[in-house]
């Protein structure tokens, strides 16, 4: 196997080898052989390294990527001035990628690379690493080679349009290496000795876009690492912040309006939850546009339940920053309100409670009529979970306070729904909750309840009278039709009637 590797490696001529040896410093010379590169210090070979190790290094890792020093040396075996060269050399060594679909293939080489990656992480964690421009370039290159890849379509997309709560996660077989590379990248970004002005040339727009693409990974462990790294990149590189916001918005646009398939929406929203909390006041128009054009349409996809918690947090962060945005948010919820999806309707009601809890009286009064017309429809839902969740709004003290101050407007909007529940609803839990809410209104304003009761009975009487008139009319038509049978060429006049659709 090693011979196969050796046959693919570029070989230098004997002249170049002798020239390299002659051109080295007399104090620190490098002896180059056909088996690999061994670093010598003060003319003496470093002890503890056998020819087998040197052959393995040359066979697995091409000599052209080694930065003038044997990469399998330990950091303890070289002097402090040489550690930086060894650091770059080890990074270049780790640019070789192995196939992990077959666990028995290249097992020795995989273990060797893993040990080298661990050494790199420990070296960076110790604080000894100096992030010069060559070191930054080498780290970014190594991370790009190992991390950036295209996901297989059959793993990437599920029939439901993205990973759902009920699906089993898919774990990447190369995670034993990927995890250490992510750890190294995170420590690199977090390092206080990293100069962002130099690093931004390598952690550039292309690098960030490819990191964002990786968030579509099926492996939840990888998405969790990326979430942390991208958040640190956003904090470290201020110059890239507008670009990151725009790139993430584009991912959301494609998800909502084109594919409805992406595994990393929850992680992206979690990053933005932290970003939104750091927005300065007053909010820029760009940020308000993000709420209207991105966060509100994210309520449309079927897989809302996967990322609802993170989405709700982002929304409430916006409302805490600017309470006037609560009306905008509720109008958006009403626009995308689900009609034939009870599970999603329950989610909307839960998010609605979070918004109302952060809402002040002035903003509530602007939206309460439209809002409680919709809540009235939910109270009468034949799906008991929807009706039950709508009635649970009265368990929130802040919401009850808002309703109590505006009961003259709100109670007439929902009284008919409450009465129909007490008379007809099949679920006992919904019936009990409805009676509690009705009792609550009676304690607030008994006269208003009686007035609404009278108006309800009057309207019910009109409906009964109209139904009776329709019944009599149909009976007359049926009788007339039975007396005069229709002949073959008799014209039939059909009068179009308007139909009203109720909730």
UniProtKB/TrEMBL annotation:
A GO CC term assigned to this protein in UniProt: protein phosphatase type 2A complex
InterPro entries: ARM-like, ARM-type_fold, PP2A_B56
Annotated region (Disordered), positions in chain: 1-35
Highest rank taxon of the organism: Eukaryota
UniProtKB keywords: Cytoplasm
Pfam family, one: B56
Gene Ontology biological process terms in this record: signal transduction
Membrane as UniProt keyword: no
Localization in the cell: Cytoplasm
Entry keyword Coiled coil: no
Extent of Low complexity compositional bias: 19-29
One GO MF term attached to the UniProt entry: protein phosphatase regulator activity
PANTHER family per UniProt: SERINE/THREONINE PROTEIN PHOSPHATASE 2A PP2A REGULATORY SUBUNIT B, SERINE_THREONINE PROTEIN PHOSPHATASE 2A 57 KDA REGULATORY SUBUNIT B' KAPPA ISOFORM
Function of the molecule: The B regulatory subunit might modulate substrate selectivity and catalytic activity, and also might direct the localization of the catalytic enzyme to a particular subcellular compartment.
Family: Belongs to the phosphatase 2A regulatory subunit B56 family.
Name of this chain's protein: Serine/threonine protein phosphatase 2A regulatory subunit
Organism of derivation: Tetracentron sinense (Spur-leaf)
């Amino acid at each position: 196997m090693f011979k196969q590797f050796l046959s693919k490696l570029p070989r230098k001529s004997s002249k170049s080898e002798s020239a390299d040896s002659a051109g080295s410093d007399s104090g620190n010379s490098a002896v180059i052989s056909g088996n690999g590169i061994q670093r010598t210090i003060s003319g003496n070979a470093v002890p503890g390294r056998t020819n087998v190790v040197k052959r393995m290094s040359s066979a697995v890792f091409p000599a052209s990527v080694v930065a003038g020093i044997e990469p399998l040396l330990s950091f303890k075996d070289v002097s402090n001035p040489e550690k930086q060269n060894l650091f770059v050399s080890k990074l270049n060594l780790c640019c070789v990628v192995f196939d992990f679909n077959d666990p028995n293939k290249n097992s020795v080489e995989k273990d060797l690379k893993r040990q080298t990656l661990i050494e790199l992480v420990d070296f960076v964690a110790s604080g000894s690493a100096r992030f010069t421009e060559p070191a930054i370039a080498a780290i970014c290159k190594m991370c790009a080679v190992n991390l950036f890849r295209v996901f297989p379509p059959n793993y990437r997309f599920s029939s439901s349009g993205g990973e759902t709560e009920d699906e089993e996660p898919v774990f990447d077989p190369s995670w034993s290496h990927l995890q250490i590379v992510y750890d190294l990248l995170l420590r690199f970004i977090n390092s206080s000795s990293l100069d962002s002005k130099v690093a931004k040339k390598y952690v550039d727009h292309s690098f960030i876009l490819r990191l964002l693409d990786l968030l579509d990974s099926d492996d939840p462990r990888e998405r969790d690492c990326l979430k942390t790294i991208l958040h640190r990149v956003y904090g470290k590189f201020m110059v890239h912040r507008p670009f990151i916001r725009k790139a993430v918005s584009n991912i959301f646009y494609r998800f909502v309006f084109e594919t409805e398939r992406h595994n990393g929406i929850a992680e992206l929203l979690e990053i933005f939850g932290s970003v939104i909390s750091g927005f300065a006041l007053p909010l820029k128009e760009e940020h308000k546009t993000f709420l209207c054009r991105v966060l509100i349409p994210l309520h449309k996809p079927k897989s809302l339940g996967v990322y609802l918690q993170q989405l709700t947090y982002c929304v409430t962060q916006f409302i805490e920053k600017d309470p006037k945005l609560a009306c905008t948010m509720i109008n958006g919820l009403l626009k995308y309100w689900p009609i034939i999806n009870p599970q999603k309707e329950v989610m909307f009601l839960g998010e609605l409670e979070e918004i109302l809890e952060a809402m002040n009286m002035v903003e509530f009064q602007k939206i309460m009529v439209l809002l409680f017309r919709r809540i009235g429809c939910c109270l009468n839902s034949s799906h008991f979970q929807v009706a039950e969740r709508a009635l649970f709004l009265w368990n929130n003290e802040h919401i009850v306070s808002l309703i109590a101050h505006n009961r003259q407007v709100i109670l007439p909007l929902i009284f008919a729904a409450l009465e129909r529940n007490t008379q007809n609803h099949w679920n006992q839990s919904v019936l009990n909750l409805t009676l509690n809410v009705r009792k609550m209104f009676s304690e607030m304003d008994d006269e208003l309840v009686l007035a609404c009761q009278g108006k309800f009975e009057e309207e019910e009487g009109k409906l009964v009278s109209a139904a009776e008139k329709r019944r009599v009319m149909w009976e007359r038509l049926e009788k007339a039709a039975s007396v005069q049978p229709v002949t073959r060429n008799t014209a039939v006049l059909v009068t179009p009637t308007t139909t009203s659709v109720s909730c």
